Amino acid sequence: MPALRDLIVARLQEIGVRALFGVPGGSGNLDLIDAAGRAGLRFVLTATETGGALAAIAQAEVLQRPGSCLTTLGPGAGSVANGVACAFLDRAPILVFTDCHAATSAGAFEHQHFDHQAFFKPITKWTGRLSPGSGQHTIDQAFAALLDVPPGPVHLDWPEDAESGFDSRDSGLGLPADLSAIASAKAEALAKVVPAFETAVSGAQRPLVIVGLGARRPADARVICDLLERHNIPAMVTYKAKGVVPDDHPCFAGVFTNASIERPIVNASDLILGIGLDPVELLPRPWPYKQPCLYAGEWPVADRQVPFAAQRVTSLATALTEIDALLGPSEWNLEDVRKKVCDQRQAVDIGDEAGHMTSQRVVRLAAARLARNTRVTVDAGAHMFPATMLWPSGEPNQMLISNGLSTMGFALPAAIGAALADRERPVVALTGDGGLLMCAAELLTAVREKLRIITIVFSDRSLSLIEIKQQRRRYQPAGVALGDIDWPKLAEGFGVAPFVAASEAALESAIEQASRESGPCLIEARIDGSNYPRTLEAIRG
Fold first, then answer.
1. pLDDT of residue 268
2. Number of other CB atoms surrounding residue 244 within 10 Å
């Protein structure tokens, strides 16, 4: 009879998990790694536990299936918390396994022990512990929570005696693998007719769609674009929804973050339709708009920040069909909207008076050569503003970013997860030097896995975004200078092909050479960040 570990691996494969990421311990997860290997489910060793979780998140987003990672007990569980919190706030379905002491020795040992369930409870949808004789029930609970909506992380402790008393004859697999079907089924159960929703949609003359992370499956994108085209309606996208409406689509109205730069377009609307719009994606500032705002999506969302007049909780297919039937003729001039989007980009595309290379030029030059055929991951930091505004996306999940948590150190581990999900497609990781320092050892993971990742590090030797905020408060810079980093030597030490660019011509040459590499490479783009304050002012006000 198969062991508990084999049945768990079978269930992971059934729901579409492609790999296990993380740093192993010496207890239960060794059993899991062994069983995964025998079943053809890869274990990918990452340099850090957080890197393993971030790679699992990226793989989940690319494949639209759950991801998974594992760690040892105690310090491993503590270290993975940043990645788990990222999954929680970015609505990413990942299953996190941690080692723990045997159930039979509960309370007997203090070494490397703390309450994992209490620790993970605030940042997971569900947390539990396998115990002898109750493995099947606990596994059922864990997988049911993982496949439920809204998406998010689930945590499971695996003690070394978890297999004791397990009888596979009591086990039933059979959870459906189609996550969209699960979400739609729950949404339909919650669905109800909302008269205020119908009235507002049918009466709108200039409705504006804002697409969020809850509407980024490829099928969602097709239906949303069809709706926009039929009714001549513009649509903005959040960071996580970049590509649902492609940047070159005639209905594309820019990126929405609840910042100042998008207000001229939003203010021109008489109704805001949030399709899959989760407020966790928005800047934490008051909602400035007076026109009605409606939500349509597959799970209810909080309305404390965004005062949704009504929420239509149902499958997106149903919601979009209803909206399609209710909408009347639109009075929008899409050419005027397009001009406003161009104005936004020009406001962000700030040059340097002294002729130094800027982050904007790095993004522009890299995107011109790489955007069409690659996926891009974006780290938190000042470079994020030109990256999200100026790097075009043509499909959902072509740009991956930590938005709800906005954690630094995201881009490289996420690039690893994305590249392993689709080896045919190169991945570009856009990161600041501060962010890369937090996860630089993952370069070795990329080398070990022979991944086609081009890491572009915006090198200005500073935590630039924090420095800008110090300047705004009229403080002297303190604690933000990184010092000199020899990125080429660091890259070479890991076996990564290095390139250095201090000018636009050198950058174009480096990008061209890097695009021909069969393995990972790193481009140090030496930039001047003096225009960052003006960039931030242009976007956020």
1. 97
2. 31
